[in-house]
Amino acid sequence: MKLFSGRHLGTTLKQEAFIDTPLGNISLKLFVEEITYVPNKRFALPNGGTLYGYYYDQFDAELVICKLKLNIPSHMVVDNSQAAVFRVKPNNTVHSCNFVAEWEKGYTWETFGSNSGQHLESVEYKNRLIRLHLGTQDGEELMYRKINGDLIPNSLELHSDLERFSFIEYINHGFRIPFNQILKDEICQVHFIVAWTKNIADDVSTWFAVDQLTKYILEGEELI
Q: How much of the chain exceeds pLDDT 90, in percent?
């Protein structure tokens, strides 16, 4: 572990990264200079989460997948929630870095629709039994983090409402977060959150569950 501080237990090699849900698997992918990279280390975290390491000559990256500490209204309940936090630190400047969360083949959801809000990009997926949300922070929130020195590259420039609200790309029934440049030794951090529960009419619990700050994800594994 290089980019997150904390304890860990054990390692393995070449482990694909994904989130397992009742509607199928959501794959987590990292593209640097348009090349897909696979983790080459795996760390079991003390409280049930997993950290995947991508340690290459050009960059170091880590991906934490874990259950998050939910910060939602007390009357709301979700069956489960999982989150993925990427951190990337180039050893030399990179000019393209994409973070992707997308459904693998074999998913069982039947309908989907955009369900975004302030500072949140989100899609709802459901079938007769299950309602699930996949969410990430929107361009406006990423710009706010950049201004406040919160692990967003200085190269990110989103000046207009159109640029901010269209920065996160919808692809293959998932999301891509694209950065054009990350300088040597800059750390870039983004996250994706998935939450699901029974498909009950007008229940918005999973929508609130994917609208979280990164600290609520990392607290459960003592990584902050």
A: 79
